[in-house]
Amino acid sequence: MNKKIVCLLLSLILLLSQTGCWSYRGLNEITIIAGIGIDLDPKTKDYLVSCEIIDLTSTGKESGTKAKLVESRGKTVMDAVRNAKKRLLNKLYWGNNEVLIFGNELAKSGDIGNVINWFLTDAECRETVCLVVSQEKTAKDLLSIYGLDNSVVAFEIKKIIADDENVVGTMENVQLFQAFSILNSPGRSLALPAFRDVKNDEDIVAESNGEAVFKGDKLVGYLPPEESKYYLFAVDEIHGGILTTSSTDEDQTDVSLEISKSKTKNSYSYENGQLKFTIKIETEVAVDEMKPGVDLLDEDTLEKIEQREQKMIEERTESVIKKVQTQYNSDIFGFGNMIYKSDVKLWQQLEPEWDKIFPTIQVKVESKVNIVNTSFLKHS
Amino acid sequence: MEKEYFTLRQIVCMIILFICGSSVVLGGSSEAGQDSWICLIMSQIFAIPMVMIYARIVQIYPEKNIFQVLEILFGKFAGKILTALFTWYSLHLAALVLRNFSEFIAITSIPETPQLALMIVMGLVCVHMAKSGIEVFVKWSLVNLAALLLLMFLTIFLLFNRIDVTNFLPIMEHDTKTLFAGSYSLFAFPFAETVLFLGITDHIRKEDKPLKVFLLGEGLGALIVLVVMLRNISVLGAAMLKTENFPSYSAARIINVSEFLARVEGVISTNFILGGITKISLCLITACKGTASLFNIKDYKTIVMPVALCSIALSLIIFSNTMQMFNFLNVYKIYAIPFQILIPALIWVWSEFKAHFKEKKADKPA
């Protein structure tokens, strides 16, 4: 009986020590990061980190989520991140971070590999963070503005990127782990979404602006949205967006076609030291806009539109590829990677000279456009 | 006290869980990148004959464990030395898995908690498991294998849109040497670790065919590890696979079903805890049985606690940091040769020889 009482008392004492979790952190003890921008100080080579944090003090039911900006600097990324604590109440929490913005300067100097590695190493950061390149002077310029719909601009950028491939079709959503894979796989270069600030009504807002082209981990240039769309065609990452063309032979653009489905197949041949790539693009579109007075059930009309569109896709894709080949000499289309994956021996032979070979590759684009419906109207 | 026995299904489940235990989280060897799955299949070339040897030993000496067999075969003195060696191996393996477990938790979830606390908690569960006897243990395996499989298929299902089959290309990029090295690492960890089951074979009934039991468990275990490996390669790609310490965990972190179902990496931790407990408990039981036979103790259950404390203490001192733990896998495959290959092979050859000799002797008087 005595033993039982002693046991009971002992377990009661034990219970007292079980009242909390070890290293438990409540909401009041963490500062949630929504997005982070990283810049390089050109003079001191310090990393400048700007974090957009959720402002829990002024976030309420009526006002919605509010955000603030925290800045810090340090010799390394981690150093800069920890230095932020010097002016913060709580430690930064990375679990909810959605975007990682590279400043122009940092991307040009070729330090993105470093930053990506830090994000992968750290336990709190997630592998699915979206990567963005800021076309403004610094990454901070993108984060210091307010979003249009969502006052947290990082969340807005993330949503813009995530929806883009289905709605607009100008950007490829590259997540952290994918970027790491691309940087570390042979014969492939990185292309990341680019953002800039634009004036909208009275405010400044963030807007997507095509793709940033990297060579290795250095930024070499940009593709504007008109061109990045055809980059997406080439790498088979387009699932939506609008194609425009004219219904007559005149130069006036008066037809919109909405992409509903697109499939790209690449193949290559290697003869007498000359690499030839063939890109076959098959696209299904719907007619969404047309000048008045056109019979949309007429096969001839539609076929003409299809053919004109096909020609346009072919020309533009080829010209984008040409531009990347000659101006940037960066294999963002993964041509080398394709050879590596299907014929390792050939790749080993080509790899040392790939920088010289890539601009000389002949690329042929074959496009097939099928109009599958004309939405609500028979005649326009 | 009546002796406890396994049923056929129970021991198969246990072998599967034992094989999957830590390897589904540590992801096995990844030096061959996208060709790792080929290594896995190749590792079976070594693993199957080895497992057949283990099974044959059980067949020759039914209802005896390895320690009893050692004493019968090599006499008191030499038998005890081999017993001590094998006991050390199981004790060391228990410590290794314990350390894997605590390092994993410390890196991924709770970095501020001292690892000793994690080890003690985990160790106590395993002590309880070992003390409650074989019967409880096998029932636990049965339930947990179901849980492990369910969680594994859940992650595969949720990662379905992330699977990129071109990640497997180019097939056979690496030369045969790398492939063989990779497959040998996989053989040593986890497949040949099934040698520890020889410590509890006295609980297998005479009628159950040990060959079938071992091969079935080994084969199914390999299949599960293969599925996990295919998932990791196709989702992460070779570059990520080569750098990640815990590829399965990273793969699970990528799961995101329309912002609604995300952050399910806890599933992988759960897998590891379930598999880890099974593996540590089995190592503990084998270590205790070895120690008991070493010191002529009747019931191994009485020494579970001290042995467990030894292995907890050992797990604290074997590595001074995590990098050593991962590097040790390279040493381990050589270090484990005596225990995984030499001792069993010695027993097997010697016992076949003895059996043969006996037969002849029995023939002669007639």
Automatic annotation (TrEMBL), chain A:
Stored Gene3D superfamilies? Nutrient germinant receptor protein C, domain 3
Give the matching Pfam families: Spore_GerAC, Spore_GerAC_N
Entry annotated with the keyword Transcription regulation: no
Q: What is the lineage of its organism?
A: Bacteria, Bacillati, Bacillota, Clostridia, Eubacteriales
Q: Which residues form the Spore germination GerAC-like C-terminal domain?
A: 209-374
**Cellular compartments annotated:** Membrane
Entry's family note: Belongs to the GerABKC lipoprotein family.
Matching entries from InterPro entries are given as: GerAC_N, Spore_GerAC-like, Spore_GerAC-like_C, Spore_GerAC_C_sf
**Which PANTHER family does this chain map to?**
SPORE GERMINATION PROTEIN B3 (PTHR35789)
On the tree of life, the source organism's domain of life is: Bacteria
Q: State if Signal is listed as a keyword.
A: yes
Q: Which organism is it from?
A: Caproiciproducens faecalis
Report the membrane topology from the UniProt record.
Answer: Lipid-anchor
Could you tell me which residue ranges the Spore germination protein N-terminal domain spans?
A: 24-195
**Protein name per its UniProtKB record:** Ger(X)C family spore germination protein
Q: What's in the keyword line of the UniProt record?
A: Germination, Lipoprotein, Membrane, Palmitate, Signal
UniProtKB/TrEMBL annotation, chain B:
- Tell me where in or outside the cell this protein is found: Membrane
Question: Does the UniProt entry include the keyword Lipid metabolism?
Answer: no
Output the InterPro entries linked to this UniProt entry: Spore_GerAB
For this UniProt record, the keywords arranged alphabetically read as follows: Germination, Membrane, Transmembrane, Transmembrane helix, Transport
Coiled-coil region: none
- What sections of the protein cross the membrane? 12-29, 35-57, 77-98, 104-130, 142-160, 180-201, 213-233, 300-320, 332-351
The membrane topology noted for this protein in its Swiss-Prot or TrEMBL record is: Multi-pass membrane protein
Q: Please give the superkingdom of this protein's source.
A: Bacteria
Q: Which NCBIfam families match?
A: 2A0309 (TIGR00912)
- Protein family membership: Belongs to the amino acid-polyamine-organocation (APC) superfamily. Spore germination protein (SGP) (TC 2.A.3.9) family.
Protein name, UniProt field: Endospore germination permease
Which species does this protein come from? Caproiciproducens faecalis
